Amino acid sequence: MKRLICYIALLIITVSGCAGTGNLLLNAPLQHFMISIEQDGAAVDIVNNRVYLGKKPFAIVVTMANPDSVFVSASISPKSFESACSGMRVDEISGFSEEGITEELFNREQVLVLSDHSPNFWQYTNENEHRFSEVSSEQGAIRCKRVISYIQDLDSKREKMQLSDFKGRHLYLVFMKLEWNKDYSKKIEKKRVCLELVFSDNDLNVLFNKGTPKNY
């Protein structure tokens, strides 16, 4: 876990401006980022901000217009998710109330860190400095895939566990593109996406995915 101020400063100096499916078509300018979810090598439907998954590895895909970063609140508790969906300001959402978590480069541990207060900080600067499992260029955008095989609860300080050992059924994610004013005293929100992940102990989750796949 590292302090974020150096990364934020570096991004502002070196970066101009991160989700999609394998069939992403950028017919309109990409606004900051889009989110999609994959499992077993295929895009999973996002219907009404909800995704059904089996309790096994999956991938979060962040598609960016330019090298950029995204903050991700991930929690077992729905509190931050509900606050974000209701339109509360970022300063009022508990999942973004503390310093961000910067994981190791290239997501070697394939872990999603959970916290009720500290968001994850995922950034792509260039091919030698990013926090994703794999990165590719598609339709003029940067497609950043982060494979999730484990979860780890930062607040309880527990060791990471395999998704198959997760006893719950829900994880709540809020993605935000944030910037700061000149003296870093105020967060400026540019975009947010809220997703509820619902896990099944079997592979029948495909039955729940009746809607049209969407990118958020």
Give helix % range: under 10%
Alpha-beta content class: mainly beta
Number of domains: 1
Largest sheet, in brief, is: 7 strands, mixed
Helix and strand element order: HEEEEEHEEEEEEEEEE
Q: What fraction strand?
A: 35-45%
What this model shows, in words?
The protein has 216 residues and is mainly β. It has one domain (5-19, 29-208). It is 8% helix and 41% strand. The chain has 2 helices and 15 strands. Strands 3, 5, 6, 8, 9, 14 and 15 form a 7-stranded mixed β-sheet that branches. Strand 10 and strand 11 form a beta hairpin. The radius of gyration is 16 Å and the shape is globular. The chain starts with a helix and ends in a 16-residue tail after the last strand. Mean pLDDT is 85; it is low at 1-27 and 204-213.
Characteristic key phrases:
mainly beta, 2 helices, 5-stranded antiparallel sheet, 216 residues, disordered N terminus
Structure in a nutshell:
Strands 3, 5, 6, 8, 9, 14 and 15 form a seven-stranded mixed sheet that branches. A five-stranded antiparallel sheet has the order 2-1-4-11-10, with no helix packed on it. Strands 7-12-13 form a three-stranded mixed sheet, with no helix packed on it.
Write the layout of secondary structure elements.
Layout: H1 5-14, E1 33-39, E2 42-44, E3 50-54, E4 58-64, E5 68-75, H2 79-85, E6 101-102, E7 111-114, E8 120-126, E9 129-130, E10 134-138, E11 141-148, E12 150-153, E13 161-162, E14 170-180, E15 187-200
Parallel strand pairs: 3-15, 6-8, 7-12
Antiparallel strand pairs: 1-2, 1-4, 4-11, 5-8, 5-14, 8-9, 10-11, 12-13, 14-15
